[in-house]
Specification:
12-stranded antiparallel sheet; elongated
């Protein structure tokens, strides 16, 4: 349950926590929807005040921490003409996600004609996932049974992300009603770093119990993504007649992004992930600039 508290000092606070089984959607302050036993702790605080006679500020901070466990067992039997195939699977996973989010709006009224509004926002995220999936298949014909294959997949991922936005607006009322000049500057920076490992063991057998083939795979995945966007807009309004206003705009945007994904296979000699998998490795950079009138 969520509990809200507020007081006369311009602040407010919300707290909550608990666990449940089912679909873990609708988390407070962020998180992802994952089926399983979900435990969520969340809290936040709101602040509003006036600093002097010219500055007003509102801000909020929220924190969310969720942990989801999932254990699944399944058994499937497929009947053929003279035999059957039995499939036994056990899967276990755990997902942990933590978010910190800060928002603020600061309004500075310089005088009766000029004002500045600054709106920053910052979000931090840390997450980790782990899964272990094992499957065994048997064939049964009459009273005889033999193993067809056994496969085990394990995955482990950890990552962190950041999203920071800034928006600054200066507005001036000129010496005629409806005549205004405004300048808007904005910036968005985000990054996402992840490190993951994939492990796969598989064995396949003939009807007489001999191993026909097997495979072992070990991979490391490193992801580093960055985005940096900048924009500036200048607007001018001029009243022409009653209910008619002329608006002139100029906007400049610069969007830059970098996406780096590296996949390394384990070296059976050194035991380290120092063998680059070229087919699963890529690097992209993009830059887009525009001027709009």
């Amino acid at each position: 349950d969520m509990v809200g508290m507020s007081g006369p000092g311009g602040g407010g606070m919300m707290m909550g926590g608990g666990g449940r089984m089912g679909n873990a959607g609708g988390n407070f302050g962020g998180g992802s929807a994952t089926t399983g036993i979900n435990k969520v702790y969340a809290g936040g605080i709101n602040y509003r005040d006036v600093w002097g006679s010219k500055v007003s500020v509102t801000s909020s901070y929220f924190h969310n921490n969720s942990n989801v466990h999932n254990l699944r067992n399944s058994y499937r039997q497929t009947f053929l003409t003279d035999s059957s195939i039995n499939r036994d699977q056990q899967a276990w996973s755990e997902n942990t996600n933590a978010n910190h989010r800060f928002n603020m709006k600061l309004t500075y009224t310089i005088d009766s004609l000029n004002s500045i509004i600054y709106t920053p926002s910052l979000t931090l995220q840390n997450s980790s996932t782990y899964s272990d999936d094992s499957t065994v298949q048997f064939a049964q014909k009459s009273t005889e049974a033999y193993m067809l294959n056994n496969v085990r997949n394990m995955q482990e991922n950890e990552g962190e992300g950041l999203n920071w936005t800034n928006n600054l607006i200066w507005r001036r009322l000129l010496n005629k009603p409806g005549r205004t000049l405004s300048v808007n500057l904005s910036n968005t920076y985000s990054m996402n770093d992840r490190e993951g490992y994939l492990m796969n063991n598989s064995n396949y057998f003939s009807s007489d119990g001999l191993k026909t083939r097997s495979g072992i795979s070990r991979q490391q995945n490193l992801i580093d993504n960055k985005v940096n966007n900048v924009a500036a807009t200048v607007s001018y309004t001029e009243p022409l007649a009653r209910n008619k206003v002329l608006e002139l705009n100029y906007g400049y945007t610069r969007n830059a992004s970098e996406n780096d994904r590296r996949t390394n296979d384990i070296n059976p000699i050194t035991g380290k992930y120092d063998m680059e998998n070229i087919g699963l490795t890529n690097h992209f950079e993009s830059l887009n600039e525009s001027n709009r009138f």
